[in-house]
Amino acid sequence: MTDLSSRVVIARDLTLDAAAARRGPLRNTSPAQLKKLLDSRTERDVLEGLRKVISMTYRAQPTLPYFPAVIKNIASPSLEVKKLVYIYLLHHAEQAPEEALLSINTIQKALSDQNPQVRALALRIMSGIRVPVIHQIVSIGIKRGCADMSPYVRKAAAFAIPKCYRLEPSTLPQLLEYLGVLLGDKQYYVAGAAVSAFMEVCPDRIDLIHPHYRSLIRKLVDMDEWGQLATLRMMTVYARRCFPQQTRRVKKEGTMGFYGDEGTDSGEEVGEEVSMLDPDLELLLKAARPLLQSRNSAVVVAVARCYLYLAPSSPYFSLAVGPLVSLLRSAQDIQQIALYNIVQVCLARPEAFVAYTTHFLIRALDPPQVWRLKLEVLTLVFPHCGRETKGLILSELEHFSKGHGNDALVRESVRSIGRCAQSSDARTASRCLRLLLKQITSANSNLVAEALEVIRLLIMRDPAAHAQTVIRLAKNLDTVTSPQARASIIWLVGEFAGVEPDNSIAADVLRILAKGFADESEAAKLQIMLLAAKVYVHHLNLTQPTRSSHPSPPEPEAASHSPVADEDHGDGGFRASSTTPPPPSSPPPLPSKDHPVPILYRYILLLARYDTSYDLRDRTRLCRALLAVPTSTELASLLLLAPKPVPQQPSPSERRRGFVLGSASLVVGDEGGVGGLKGYDDLPGWVRAGEEPEKRLRDERDSRSRGMDGGGVGGAERVVPAGERLDRADKGRTGADVLGVGLGGTASVKEKTLDDWLDEDEGGGEEDKDEESEEGSTEEEDDTEEESSGEEEEEEEEEEDMSESEDDEGNGERDRLVK
User: Fold this and answer.
1) Which sequence spans correspond to the domains of the chain?
2) pLDDT at 104 over 50
3) Which region ranges are annotated with the description Disordered (predicted)?
4) What is the DSSP string of 219-281?
């Protein structure tokens, strides 16, 4: 009957809650009514009042006046009421620190509650109250939580350690001792929380990890996702600092001699160096392999980071490529993050993604931030693909470069074709160039401009092989209308005008452009002015001989008639050229004013002098000053005809190469600053061979013995439990001592119980006293032995006499009976 009534009450409560939720959001209640609900003796009314107060808190309404009425319900036996009170306390403890301190005693009492959820919640709230005065109380609560029987409470203690450290950094020595205990906890979720606290409090104290390294790796698979992320991040740093890079030389195949001898007479080692993995490092890599099937994308990226930075040339790295690509099937935001990390891996190992090229083809519904990264991945893997795959990628890029209303996609596709051309062989580069030349006749001005920009970069890589290409582009000046495209073609004509001076078309192109100079855009006018200056400089260099700007003074006439000079004069030696004075030369002929090149140059100067563009007028004055003296063209040739460096079109993510895989700075890029976002830490370098910590530090048995000797964390003495002392004593005794048998003995002694082991220390003093008393009494015993032996002999003689007399009496009596 009681069970039925309780079920009826629960059903009624559920019905009322459903009805209240059906009515919609909580209605506004007056402060008096709220206080009445909070002061009520009914649990339902108190719970309703607390819900309204919490809802007002999250709606940024003032709820501090209800602090006394809420805090007095902290001792309520209801777990739901306690949770709401604790939430309210966390929000208002800083605003009312004195009132919050009144509830500390009640929270401390909750640490001894029978319910582990209540104890964990009390520890969580106590550490969350950001009042610096209670840091010692929080530290004591963490100490009690570390020794709690419930792993749920120990996990809460691990999460409370960073809060206590932020509250008061001076408590670090105590917190390190607690961390050392929690890192060795047998429960995997407690160890995961301890690792998270370790990474926040003291990530550089790797000496705390040595004794727990192997146990943490064994628990890695069973940890929760957040614990796995923290453990993988910590183990990546730990491996860099504790395991040096090791290599060994492997003999190459096919090094047999002509007669089948394997050795070489030269004494040189023939082979290649391959990396070796430390056994403990390989244990980590094997333990992380099952995590590649995790449902959390961050865990998959963390495993890939571990393989990339710890064993990039091992077979483990290839196992992480497929799971990384599978993240592209997730939501768009996860796709974007996954692609940033895939691009980062491609910059280091692009050949690993060749088999997954089709997964990076653009889809119709891909947003811009996704298809940009996909195009970048295609260009990175392009040099490592086969012939068929390269054709597929180029066909894909050609399709999107034709333009379908998306100018950004057209621009990126054309640039991708250019990156594919510069990173491949000559045959593939010529195919890419043909694809781009087809686009210059398109009606899309953006497509033509981008295509010509990429063509310009490709021609600059090998100018001599693309002379006909420049002529073909110059013929399209009549049809090209894009200002940027026309400027690119004019620049190419002027840049390669001196490749073949006899067959140069630069002067003819300048003559045609001069007719419509006034109708050109500003970008085209600037390039026409530059073209006129280059053509004029080439004309001056061809029509006058090269002359040194600092002629050497003539040698004395006596030296010119020396016998050594006469001997070498006919042989063409270096002495003849240096000692024989040059013949007097007449001044070089000035260029003819009737030649069309000077006329065109002066005409362009005159047109540009009165143009409305400031930049064009400034460039005109610069060219006029450089070429003011036609006989001195050295400076003008240096500025205008200097060889240009071969242009490189790097990948857009090249500037993100330095960021660690899986970090937020990798996604943000340059917007996060020069060194990444605040709090970003780069991976440390590999430790040098010989400077790594000793391997025995990671031995769990050694770490246990160190704890027994009293060496605690941070130099503090550790209380050794009785069970550990018994185990140590049991292992320290030899077999003969345990059995109690000598060298030739075979008997066994009864096994000692726990009480006997514990009574040994107490009974040790008494046994010593007994031994002394025994030694003192040995002399007295020796004296009394002789006396006792004499008395025994006398007694035996008397007994013999009595027996003889008894025998005589018996014989006489027998004789009388016979008579």
Assistant:
1) 479-545+594-641
2) yes
3) 544-594, 679-819
4) TTTTS-HHHHHHHHHHHHHHHHHH---EEEEEPPTT---TTS----TT-PPPSEEEEE--HHH
